[in-house]
C-alpha cells in the first residue's frame, strides 16, 4: 500500500497568531477607553507600591510609623480618583468654559509664588511669607494647605489653549492669529513658571508644541518657537545667578551646573558635589541588574539617594525591580502614549482632538525628561514621574487630565454609537459616567441632495 506523502501545512508562528487577535481587540469600539483605564490604573498601583517602598524607612525613623508617608499619598490618590471621576463626567463645552478660569487662577498663584520668592531674594522679606501665605520654592502654602501652581498651569494651558486654537480654525496659518492671544499668554507662563521651575517650563513648551502640531500649524512656526524657547532657557539659566528659583546671588549657578555636569564625563565630575545624586542613581540601576534585589530590599533609599520618593523614584524601581520592572513602566507609558494619540486621531470635535494630543504630550514628555535625568541621558530638571512619584498636586492634576482623556475616549464616534445603542443601566450612568453625545450625522444637506438628484435624472 502506497504511503501518503502529502505534506502538512506548516503551523503559523506565534506572532502571526497573536496579531489578528490584537487587531481584533483594538478594533472594538471601547478599546481606547479600556486601554487608558488599564495603563493608568497599573501605573498608579505601581506608584503607590514604590512610594511605600521608598518612604517606609525614612518615615519610621522620623515618625515611628512606616505608613505615614504612604497614607498621605493614598489620600492624594483618592482625591485624584475623585478628580478623574468628575472630569470624566464633564461635557466638552463645560471643559472649554473652565479653561480660562483654571488658567487665570494658575497665573495668579504663580505671581504670588514668584513675588514672595523675589522679595525674599532682594532682602525685602526675611522669609518668603506674608501672613498665612508662604512660598517654599515650587510650593505655595495657604496655612497648612500646599499646592504647586505649575501643575494647574499645565492643565489650564491644555483647556484654554485647545479652546482658543479650535475657535480660530484655519486662521491659524497667519502669525497675527497666533500672536493674539496665544503667544503672549504662553510667554507670560514661561516666565512665571520658569522663574522657579525650568523643568515644568520645558513640559509646557512640549505641551504647546503638541497643541500646535495637532492643529496643523506650519513647520516654520515650530522653528520660531524653538529659537524663542532656547533664548528663554538661556535667560532663565542666567537669572539663577541673580537669585531666581533656588539660586543665590553670587553663588554657583545651579542650573548651569546641571547642564555642564551632564556634558562632563563621570570621572571628571565632583562625586561629592553636584554629581552625587546622578552617581547614586546610576549605582541603584547597576545594583538592580535584570531582576532587581527584590521589592522593599533596596539599600540606596536609606538616605543615600536624595529625593528617592519623588524625582528619583525611577532609580528605586530599577534597583528593586531591575530591568524587567523598568521595562514594565516603559511599556505602560508607551501604551498611554499610543492610546492618547489614538483618541486624538479618532476625535471628530477639534477641541477634544487638540486637548487629547496636548495631555498625551504633557504626560509622556514629563516621563521622558524624568527618566532621562535619572539615567543620565538628559540633564536633571527636578520633574516628578507621572503617577509614580510622591506628591499631591501633581498626582491629582494628572488624574484629572486622564479623566478628560477617558471622557474623550467615550466620545469617539464608534464608542458613542455603541454606548448609545446598548446603554448601561441607569445606576451605572448616574454613578460612573453619563452617555456620551452621538456623533454628528453625516447626511447631506437639502441642497446637496437636490444637486445629487438632478445629476441622477440627467
Automatic annotation (TrEMBL):
<dbReference type="GO" id="GO:0015648">
    <property type="term" value="F:lipid-linked peptidoglycan transporter activity"/>
</dbReference>
<feature type="transmembrane region" description="Helical">
    <location>
        <begin position="312"/>
        <end position="341"/>
    </location>
</feature>
<keyword id="KW-0808">Transferase</keyword>
<dbReference type="Pfam" id="PF01098">
    <property type="entry name" value="FTSW_RODA_SPOVE"/>
</dbReference>
<keyword id="KW-0472">Membrane</keyword>
<feature type="transmembrane region" description="Helical">
    <location>
        <begin position="353"/>
        <end position="373"/>
    </location>
</feature>
<keyword id="KW-0573">Peptidoglycan synthesis</keyword>
<dbReference type="GO" id="GO:0005886">
    <property type="term" value="C:plasma membrane"/>
</dbReference>
<protein>
    <recommendedName>
        <fullName>Probable peptidoglycan glycosyltransferase FtsW</fullName>
        <ecNumber>2.4.99.28</ecNumber>
    </recommendedName>
</protein>
<feature type="transmembrane region" description="Helical">
    <location>
        <begin position="385"/>
        <end position="409"/>
    </location>
</feature>
<keyword id="KW-0132">Cell division</keyword>
<dbReference type="GO" id="GO:0008955">
    <property type="term" value="F:peptidoglycan glycosyltransferase activity"/>
</dbReference>
<feature type="transmembrane region" description="Helical">
    <location>
        <begin position="137"/>
        <end position="162"/>
    </location>
</feature>
<dbReference type="InterPro" id="IPR001182">
    <property type="entry name" value="FtsW/RodA"/>
</dbReference>
<dbReference type="GO" id="GO:0008360">
    <property type="term" value="P:regulation of cell shape"/>
</dbReference>
<keyword id="KW-0133">Cell shape</keyword>
<comment type="function">
    <text>Peptidoglycan polymerase that is essential for cell division.</text>
</comment>
<feature type="transmembrane region" description="Helical">
    <location>
        <begin position="66"/>
        <end position="86"/>
    </location>
</feature>
<dbReference type="GO" id="GO:0032153">
    <property type="term" value="C:cell division site"/>
</dbReference>
<keyword id="KW-0812">Transmembrane</keyword>
<feature type="region of interest" description="Disordered">
    <location>
        <begin position="438"/>
        <end position="458"/>
    </location>
</feature>
<keyword id="KW-1133">Transmembrane helix</keyword>
<keyword id="KW-0131">Cell cycle</keyword>
<feature type="transmembrane region" description="Helical">
    <location>
        <begin position="101"/>
        <end position="125"/>
    </location>
</feature>
<feature type="transmembrane region" description="Helical">
    <location>
        <begin position="221"/>
        <end position="240"/>
    </location>
</feature>
<feature type="transmembrane region" description="Helical">
    <location>
        <begin position="182"/>
        <end position="214"/>
    </location>
</feature>
<dbReference type="GO" id="GO:0009252">
    <property type="term" value="P:peptidoglycan biosynthetic process"/>
</dbReference>
<feature type="transmembrane region" description="Helical">
    <location>
        <begin position="33"/>
        <end position="54"/>
    </location>
</feature>
<dbReference type="GO" id="GO:0051301">
    <property type="term" value="P:cell division"/>
</dbReference>
<keyword id="KW-0328">Glycosyltransferase</keyword>
<comment type="similarity">
    <text>Belongs to the SEDS family. FtsW subfamily.</text>
</comment>
Amino acid at each position: 500500500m502506497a504511503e501518503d506523502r502529502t505534506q502538512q501545512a506548516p503551523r503559523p508562528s506565534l506572532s502571526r497568531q497573536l496579531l489578528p487577535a490584537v487587531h481584533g481587540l483594538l478594533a472594538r469600539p471601547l478599546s481606547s477607553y479600556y486601554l487608558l483605564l488599564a495603563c493608568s490604573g497599573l501605573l498608579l498601583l505601581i506608584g503607590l507600591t514604590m512610594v511605600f517602598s521608598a518612604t517606609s524607612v525614612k518615615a519610621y525613623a522620623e515618625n515611628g510609623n512606616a505608613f505615614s508617608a504612604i497614607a498621605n499619598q493614598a489620600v492624594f490618590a483618592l482625591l485624584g480618583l475623585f478628580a478623574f471621576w468628575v472630569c470624566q463626567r464633564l461635557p466638552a463645552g463645560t471643559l472649554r468654559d473652565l479653561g480660562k478660569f483654571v488658567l487665570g487662577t494658575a497665573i495668579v498663584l504663580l505671581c504670588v509664588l514668584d513675588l514672595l520668592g523675589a522679595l525674599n531674594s532682594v532682602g525685602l522679606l526675611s522669609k518668603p511669607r506674608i501672613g498665612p501665605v508662604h512660598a517654599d520654592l515650587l510650593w505655595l502654602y495657604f496655612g497648612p494647605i500646599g499646592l504647586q501652581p505649575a501643575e494647574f498651569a499645565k492643565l489650564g494651558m491644555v483647556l484654554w489653549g485647545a479652546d482658543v486654537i479650535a475657535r480660530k480654525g484655519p486662521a491659524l496659518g497667519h502669525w497675527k492669529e497666533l500672536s493674539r492671544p496665544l503667544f503672549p499668554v504662553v510667554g507670560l507662563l514661561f516666565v512665571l513658571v520658569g522663574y522657579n521651575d525650568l523643568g515644568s517650563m520645558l513640559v509646557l513648551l512640549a505641551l504647546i508644541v503638541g497643541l500646535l502640531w495637532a492643529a496643523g500649524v506650519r513647520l516654520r512656526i515650530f522653528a520660531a518657537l524653538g529659537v524663542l524657547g532656547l533664548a528663554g532657557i538661556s535667560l532663565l539659566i542666567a537669572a539663577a545667578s541673580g537669585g531666581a528659583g533656588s539660586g543665590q546671588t553670587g553663588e554657583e549657578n545651579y542650573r548651569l551646573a546641571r547642564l555642564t555636569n551632564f556634558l562632563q564625563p563621570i570621572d571628571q565630575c565632583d562625586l561629592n558635589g553636584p554629581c552625587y545624586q546622578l552617581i547614586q542613581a546610576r549605582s541603584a540601576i547597576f545594583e538592580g541588574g535584570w531582576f532587581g534585589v527584590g521589592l522593599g530590599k533596596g539599600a540606596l533609599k536609606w538616605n543615600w539617594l536624595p529625593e528617592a520618593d519623588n524625582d528619583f523614584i525611577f532609580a528605586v524601581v530599577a534597583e528593586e525591580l531591575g530591568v524587567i520592572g523598568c521595562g514594565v513602566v516603559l511599556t505602560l507609558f508607551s501604551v498611554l502614549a499610543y492610546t492618547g494619540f489614538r483618541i486624538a486621531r479618532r476625535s471628530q470635535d477639534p477641541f477634544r482632538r487638540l486637548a487629547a494630543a496636548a495631555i498625551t504630550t504633557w504626560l509622556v514628555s514629563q516621563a521622558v525628561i524624568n527618566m532621562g535625568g535619572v539615567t543620565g541621558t538628559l540633564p536633571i530638571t527636578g520633574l516628578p514621574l507621572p503617577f509614580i512619584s510622591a506628591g499631591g498636586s501633581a498626582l491629582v492634576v494628572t488624574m484629572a487630565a486622564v479623566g478628560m482623556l477617558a471622557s474623550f475616549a467615550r466620545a469617539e464616534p464608534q464608542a458613542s454609537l455603541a454606548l448609545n445603542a446598548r446603554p448601561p443601566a441607569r445606576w451605572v450612568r448616574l454613578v460612573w459616567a453619563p452617555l456620551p453625545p452621538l456623533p454628528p450625522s453625516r447626511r447631506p444637506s437639502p441642497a446637496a441632495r437636490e444637486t445629487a438628484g438632478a445629476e441622477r435624472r440627467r
